Amino acid sequence: MEKNVEISLLLSFYKNMLTERQADTVELYYNEDLSLSEVGVELGISRQGVRDTLKRSEAILYDVESKLGLVSRFLGIKSRLSEIDEIIDEIEKSPEARLLPDSIKHQINRILTIIEQINDSED
């Protein structure tokens, strides 16, 4: 996974583990794509201060993830949901799908709805 995406994901899970200044710095640098100098101007600190804050913040985010593992669990669940979605798609495309009883088709639709709701709640 690209570092920018990884840090953004870690921030979305563990933002409260950082100070407000650290969270703002990470947000501006990784999510708003500002340069170190631009972040420094925005927050009123030096470029080196931004860099140091980013390094400390990244270390905290990685450390918390190594202890809690919420992001890796989330990604695992998301991957498994995609796999279920693909399996259901294969079932629906198979020639035998028209032979399925309506009750089974209804259950498949319920599963797809649940997957959609879970994916929507991530956004």
Rg over alpha carbons: 21 Å
> What does the average pLDDT come to?
92
Q: What is the CA-CA span between the terminal residues?
A: 19 Å
CATH topology of the largest domain: Arc Repressor Mutant, subunit A
Low-confidence stretches: none
Broad structural category: mainly alpha
The coarse silhouette is: elongated
CATH-level-2 architecture of the largest domain: Orthogonal Bundle
Write the CATH homologous superfamily of the largest domain. Winged helix-like DNA-binding domain superfamily/Winged helix DNA-binding domain
Task: List SSEs in N-to-C order.
Answer: HHHHHH
CATH class of the largest domain: Mainly Alpha
Number of helices: 6
Total beta-strand segments: 0
Largest sheet: none
Number of domains: 2
Beta-strand percentage range: under 5%
Q: Which range best describes the helical content: under 10%, 10-25%, 25-40%, 40-55%, 55-70% or over 70%? A: over 70%
Task: Please explain how this structure is put together.
This protein has two domains: 3-68, Winged helix-like DNA-binding domain superfamily/Winged helix DNA-binding domain (Arc Repressor Mutant, subunit A, Orthogonal Bundle); 75-122. With 123 residues, the chain is mostly helical. The protein has six helices and no strands. Helices cover 80% and strands 0% of the residues. The longest helix is centred in the middle third of the chain and has 24 residues, at 70-93. The two termini are 19 Å apart. The chain is elongated, with a radius of gyration of 21 Å.
